[in-house]
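Notes taken during the Thursday session

The instructor put the following on the board and asked us to keep it in front of us for the whole hour. The protein is Two pore domain potassium channel family protein. We were told not to look anything up and to reason only from what is written here. First, the residues (198 in total):
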Amino acid sequence: MAQPSDEPSDEPSGESAHRRPEPSGRGWPLLGPVVAALFVAYFLLPEHLLGPERPVLSWTVFGAALSAIALLLVKHMRDALFDRPGTVVALVSLMCLSVLLFSSAYFVMSHHPGEFTGLRTRLDALYFALLTLATLSYGDITPHGQSVRLVILLQILYTLVFLTAAATALTGKLRRSAASRPPRGTRPPRRTGKRGPG
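Then, after some discussion, the predicted C-alpha cells were revealed:
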C-alpha cells in the first residue's frame, strides 16, 4: 500500500488555484474596440431624449447608470484581487464609461440657460469632464447653475471613491501579471509526474 508523500505537490490547490494570474495576452485585443465603441456611442447618441424638459427622467437615468457602473466596478475590483480573467478590459471600460456618463450629463445640462458658459459641443463636455477628473481648470468653461455644480461634486466624489480604487486594483493586477511572467528567452519548467512504488 503506497504511503502519502510529504513532498509538496506541483498542482495548485484551494485558494492558490483561484489566485493564479491569467495569461498576459488574454482579453487585450478587445480593449481597443470596446473603448472605441464607447466613444463612438457617446458622440452619436441623441441628446434630445433627456434634458431640462424631462428633469425627473434625466436624473433617474443618470443616477441609475452611475449606480450600475459603481456596482460593476466593485465587482471587477474584487475579481482583480483574485486575478480572474477579463478584469483589465472590464475595469478600463467601466472607468471610461463613467467619464463619458458625466460628460453626457454636462452636455445635456449645457442646453439649459444659465448652467454653463463656454460649453457648446460634446467635445467641450468631454474636455470639461476630463479637466474635472484631473482637478484642473483653465477658465474657458465656467459652471454657473446649481444643478451642474451638484454633478461636478458628484464626479469629484465618484472619482475619489470608485475610480481611484479601480485604478489601484488595476495597477496591482498588472504588476502581479508582470511579475508572474518568465524572463525573456527562458522556457517554463516542465512538470514531471511522479509515480508511487508499483
